[in-house]
Amino acid sequence: MSRALFTKRQTLAHISVCLGCCCGRTDKGHPDVPVQWLKDQWKARRLLKHVQLTISGCLGPCDLTNVVSIGSSRGTTWLGGLSRHVDYEHLLQWATQVAETQRLLPLPKSFEPFVFERFRAASGVALEDYR
Q: How many domains does the chain have?
């Protein structure tokens, strides 16, 4: 019989920022990912208890360089093609507002052009098929 697991480190959201084979690779002609700036800001604003930040290896959809996934109790939102520092500033502002209000807030409208569907819909496939 299995038992349910529980973690004491629950957050409102989890942001994974890709820094893989393409994302952030200026040597390959792709836009920079301001990794150190993000880490410094998350630490200075004490956001990790509210919105976890992970700098990840490749998240997969390399044709949309500079990919970010945002997971929460509402599901996962995928962003691709972030190319300007201001895009990451908006991400930081959103995370700061979530931490300050202690509520999961909608993502800023400025992210709408970056949202994409990561997975094809599978018809007739149940969750049990993956276990």
A: 1
Q: Is the pLDDT of residue 126 over 60?
A: no
Read out DSSP for 70-95?
EEETTEEEEE----SHHHHHHHHHHH
What range defines the domain where residue 44 resides?
Answer: 13-118
Whole-model pTM over 0.85: yes
Q: At what angle do helices 35-44 and 85-101 cross, to 10 degrees?
A: 20
Residues 18, 16, 86, 35, CA torsion sign:
negative
Residue pLDDT, tens place only, 46-90 = 999 999 999 999 999 999 999 999 999 999 999 999 999 999 999
State the CATH number of the domain containing residue 95: 3.40.30
Inside any domain, residue 127: no
